[in-house]
Amino acid sequence: MDELLDHIKQENTLKKLSGDYIFYSTSPDFWEHEGVSTVAEFEHWKARVQYEKVYRESGHRGFLPICLHDLTTEQIYNEIEKLRE
Length: 85
What we know:
This protein has 4 helices and no strands. The protein has 2 domains: 1-37, no CATH class; 38-85, no CATH class. The chain is mainly α and 85 residues long.
């Protein structure tokens, strides 16, 4: 969990420097609730959140058409690109 929190703090710093003010929680309780305990799981979580955001922005409602938990992070990013086409 310490490695994950250090990674998130570093990412938050980079976001602050770039002017992006949406920060990720540094609360261990939040990440335990989300089922994230490693950096790889965090990256997968970010990809799932981004997919849902792009899916909703393209006008879709209701359930997602695929189970994002069954896909790898790379596969989710590929699905995001398909949505953007």
